[in-house]
Batch of 2 targets.
Target 1
Amino acid sequence: MLLVTTITSTAIILLPGAIAGRDAWLATLGGLAVGLVMAVTISFLGQRFPGETIIEYTEILLGKYIGKTVSALFLTFFGYLAALTLWDFGVFISSSLLVGTPMMAINIIGILVATYTARYGLEVIARVNQIFLPLIIISVLLASIIVFTMPKTSLAHILPVLENGTKPLLAGTAKVADWLGEVIVLSMVIPFLYPQKHSRSVAMVSVLISSLILLLVSLVVVATFGDISPTLFFPFYSAVLLIEISRVLRLDVVITTIWIIGSFIKISFLLYILAHGTAQWFKLVKHNFLIMPLAVIILSLSLIILKSVAEYQSISLQISGYLLFISLVLPAFLLLTAIITGRTTGKKDVK
């Protein structure tokens, strides 16, 4: 279930409310349909090339030079996700918790923890995720239930549907599809699944669970803030801050802590598969020695990739097409190529 943490850890905080407004919940449903197509595509490729990652079978399908070029796009995508997640982490902490603390200091701490975890391998990351994913889901459910019981919260705020037409909805759907498109990371870990025939169900269940979480969060935000939800950069966190039960129970602290841990897991996972994929790209036997230099690159990118929250909201709309090209179009093209050419490794499941 690393996929659920990968998809939702940042999406919970950065809901597409600024894009789809009160129709954010509809955007989530639209994104779900696209996400399921991505999940099926990736799982079919994994079953056709058991024991190999997308970096390896891309070269098999497209040849050495074109294959390496396309696989480099996938590696760039993984690196971009890691840097953006670290940026999200730094912005959230520096603007909401440790106000005034330099973002560089926060990001350095974040990448050091992620690097330490990634060096222990995929199994350790997965076991840490097994512990904290249930806590993430429970905390989101608990917070949502409490917010829904508050007097000012009303599902009537989701009406009227499509008030601003379909354009904001389509933009929101594309953004949700971007998040769900992170299911492509499965293409790097299918070789570690046993039996690999379960990869399709793993992918589809992960996308479904992630979509349900995002749907719930979307409804909470819109029901709480209505028309002003598009103006909030951390809308779900803002909704949780409204909860006042007692001085003992600080649910915002719980949500924040769980989200920070989820971000660490996601960055560690992305750093691991980036190092693993880079080693395969260069035909190297080991990848651990690549983790530190790649971590430095990710840290550097997280500090220069975006200058402000406003820039993030603007650029996220502009690059949605490019991200969908990598997470949806390229895998679909690879699968079509494999079917037409009849290419397959012919290997059986490997552990």
Target 2
Amino acid sequence: MRGAFRLINSQYGKCLLRHLLFDKKISQFELSIRTGIDSSLISKYVNNKKEMTLLTAYKIAKVLNCKIEELYDWQK
């Protein structure tokens, strides 16, 4: 519960999705297909043009087998 509390008091930093996709060898297109999220939205997340909703972050984290908090560099 402590980790969740820290996130509540944090703000979005840089989206780390580009790095996670590279490390997992998954393309933006493949992530789009596997999550059902439009590829244009995936691109906006990767390029820090839009912040993910909690549901979107959950879907992406599930596919990438990571924690939601790993999708962003959180700022205090």
